[in-house]
Design goal:
45% helix, alpha/beta, Rossmann fold, 3 domains, seven-stranded mixed β-sheet, 415 residues, globular, 20 helices, single chain
Amino acid sequence: MAEMASEARFRKNGKLKTALLQHKALSKNGVSERLFGLLFSGLVYPQIWEDPDVDMEGMQLAEGHSIVTIGSGGCNMLAYLSRAPRSIDVVDLNPHHIALNRLKLAAFEALPAHGDVVRLLSATGATSNSQAFDRFIAARLDTTTRAYWQGRTLSGRRRVGVLDRNIYRTGLLGRFIAAGHLLARLHGVDLTTMAQARSLREQRQFFDDQIAPLFDKPLIRWLTSAKSSLFGLGIPPRQYDELASLAADGSIAPVLRQRLEKLACHFPLRDNYFAWQAFVRRYPQPHEGTLPTYLRPEHYAAIRANAGRVKVHHATFTELLAAKQAGAVDRYVLLDAQDWMNDTQLNELWTEITRTAAPGARVIFRTAAERSVIAGRLSPALDAEWRYLEEPSLRLNRQDRSAIYGGFHIYERAQ
């Protein structure tokens, strides 16, 4: 599809380029960074892969809080609206994610009923979705976002037509998951049969008998030893190096096996929509399991009523904070963005976080490896302003159903 940007478009996106490029163009690391940047300049995450229920508990999110978060697929900020925050500022450097976040917000504001929102954002083969966009949503979008969704792909279809099929099979991550399914089938394993498991015991058996042996296959070990093979997961070169450092032979196959085991075996399938997307490539039907938090009926009224409290910005986290008043923000959600940053960028970010943090403010983020990425890297003055909440960080990391990260971390402003 046309959302896979050309290198020229990536280079024109100065903010994205600055965030990703740390090495000279012709160096080994520089080539990897530019390849990742080219791939990341298209749609990457139709669905966010951080568990928003863990986020909200880690933040102790409450009514009236001011939040700044990275957008990604937008599922997180919509879930946060169920807690009636005072405001949410969403930032992202990827224009495709910006358009998706604005579409999802407009869907809650414009569509007549909860069932219409669920059909638009979770159903497969609902050919009326593009018509619902034309009738209810398009007029509520800004000119740029409306033009994005009404634009044509290389195949001549309107981009919004993806909602008539299955948007979660698109984007960089959707294609990576498809490639994983194909690779498994080449080794005689149909991952979609995980949907037949009716208990944690059966999930464990399927993993042990069908999935785990795949990681010993020479082809899979060879593929996972190359940085570029995991760009489809949104893992940039710096994150790959962190994961590879955990393995003796340089292959991250053992790390991926461990993370996939958690996804497959640690949570009942009916309660883990992340596992449904990974193994079945869709959300569960009502008789099969639960939908993401933001699509559940009990949260619909609150999200619809509070959607106007969100502003979506094409900006870096640091840029947005620099424009805010001191003490104006209660909660910060950094996803895994710091794994991409050098020490200078980290200290610039935390300088603005510290300046804008209200009393008792909390920062949450995830890391590819288990250890907090900011430990020992902030200036002593900044470090003294924050305390690490180790016990809830470890506990909530175990509860994160997406299972793809090594660590979940919570920092609180020191009193």
